[in-house]
Design a protein that fits this description.
It is built from two helices and no strands. The chain is mainly α. α1 runs antiparallel to α2. The radius of gyration is 15 Å and the shape is elongated.
């Protein structure tokens, strides 16, 4: 599995958790939504780093 595929799978899992959180008890739903947001921020950073490394590798060739 490529990194991009793995990241896509994580986003799918986050979407599933968000869906479940809509039906979760109030406190639990809030916690799940918060954790999903934190994961999305972390994934965005990883994607940006990956893009930077790709651009750097391409410029060196």
């Amino acid at each position: 599995m490529k990194e991009s595929e793995a990241i896509e799978e994580i986003y799918k899992a986050i979407s599933a958790v968000r869906f479940c959180a809509t039906n979760a008890p109030l406190g639990l739903g809030d916690i799940l939504f918060d954790q999903c947001s934190r994961l999305e921020v972390a994934l965005t950073v990883i994607e940006q780093q990956e893009a930077t490394h790709s651009a750097k590798d391409n410029s060196e060739q």
